[in-house]
Specification:
The chain has 178 residues and is an alpha+beta fold. The chain is 25% helix and 10% strand. It is built from 4 helices and 4 strands; from the N terminus they run H-E-H-E-H-E-E-H.
Amino acid sequence: MSPGMWHKTLVYLGLKEEPEEGYDDLPERVVTDAEPRRRPVSDDVSVRRPTPIAPEPDPVGNVRQLHGGDVQVVRPGGSSSNTSMRTPVVEILVFDDVEAVGARYRTGQPVVFDASKAEAAIGRRVVDFVSGMTYVSRGRLARVGDRAFLLVPEGRALPPEEIDRLEDLGYRVAREEA
């Protein structure tokens, strides 16, 4: 390694002072913030500022449409064909079984989930998850048995014959006052 390279390395690492000589060729004048800075003006037509592209107007406020393959949106309280559907009963054994509850609830279908055969810790986690999901979607969560719950989406009510069917299965479903 040459002595000049070694000296530069020591200066770079801060182990040696940089010599004061060699800076005589710097300009004496310093530009202050008070002085306007001049930019070179180009008469070349090819140098232009890019024009900002206006975003496309959003037809539904601030919501943009997602383009998914097999995604189908079903609004809670939607068609009358949903009212004649049977309320599924999902037995929870492991925490991953909660996915079946959420999938059916998202379609606007009331769901009963029964965690009586699961461990107590798993049952608590499932109830916490489902109660959060129900709260966010403004649905109702009602206890219908020992560690069994009924989820009803917003704007939906169980028909009397479905309440009778769930009572025959051993669940205690409260009848709504009209």
